[in-house]
Every structure is written in structure tokens, then in C-alpha cells.
Amino acid sequence: MDALNEILAFLAGPTPQSWIDRAAKPESLPILLIDHAHCEKKAASTAMNLMFRYVDRSDLLNKMSRLAREELIHFEQCLSLMEARGIEYGHLSPARYAQGLRQAVRTSEPGRLIDLLIIGAFIEARSCERFAALAPCLDDELGKFYRSLLKSEGRHYQDYLGLAREYAGEPIDERVAYFRALEQALVEEPDPEFRFHSGAPSEEEVAA
């Protein structure tokens, strides 16, 4: 659990208990799994986009290639779990979370790359934290699945953060602190829609 403790120290704070309570409701399971599948697919796409944009960075290419493959395996695992439970995969409006982080990305290089890598680290870290928080609240099969993701997702967080430090050429502590505060605000502020990366449920969500 050392990796999880490292991730908890990296994040500004844990997921609000109100989100965990909402996610643990049986009626939340279809949206949770569908959006989780979307998140895995988007994570693979993000890694591929970085590979296409930054073709001259061999360390990035190697790490993002492996990450994309692992995320697509997780996507397939989500689809398999959903199919076994009669849950149909379909479109969902995305959470505001990732877009809220990316709105703060700098437009010039290398700042843009550094910010995208830092954001990738926070998304992977938050996913890992939520897998750990959800695992005890779900049935045995899902709990085992989410615990199995902790190792790879923890490594993804480390890959993103390590690349950000490598390519910055200077300390990134201030930029990490900026996104840490932004990320925590996004998970704590009331959110009108329940998603895997949504914020605390709004009053309307709690009543749902």
C-alpha cells in the first residue's frame, strides 16, 4: 500500500464521502461502470495524442505506448463486466473534471506539455484513490477488479509526473501546487451529474 499512501500524499485531500455514498448505491452501478469505461478509453486516447504530438521524445513515446495499451485492456475489462451484468455501453455526457483541469493549460511550449503531464498525473492519482475507496463498498467481483487496477494506475501517475519533471528543466512544485488546488476544488464542489470523476453530489443528486 506504499504506492497508495504516496498518491494520497500527492492529492490535496480524499474524495468526499458523499460521492462514495452515491457511487455505492446499487442504482449508481450502471453509470459508474459506463463512465469508467469511457475514462479508460479517453486515457488511452490522451496517451496516443501525446505520442503523435511529441514524436521526438523517446521516453514519452515508450511510457505512453505502454500506458495506452494498459488503458485499453482496462476498457475491455469494463465492457466484459458490463456485458455480464446486462449493462449496455453507450454515450454519457462527460464530467466537468478533466475539462476543468485542462482549461488552465498554458498555450506555449514547453509549458503546455508540462501542464498536460501534470494533469495526467492528477487524473491517474484520483482514479487510483477512488478505486481504493470504492473497492470495499462494491460486490466481491467489482471490488477485486478495482483493487487490481491500483498497481497499474499508480504507475501511470508516476510516469506522468516523472516525465513532467524530466522535461521541465526546472522545479515544477509551484505548478503542481496550482493544479492540486484546482483538482481538489473540482472533486469537492457540488456537481449536478454523477460520474466517475464528478464532484460531490449536489442537492438534486442526493435526492435522486
From TrEMBL:
InterPro entries: Ferritin-like, Ferritin-like_SF, tRNA-Hydrxlase_MiaE. It comes from the Bacteria. This is tRNA hydroxylase. It comes from Marinobacterium zhoushanense.
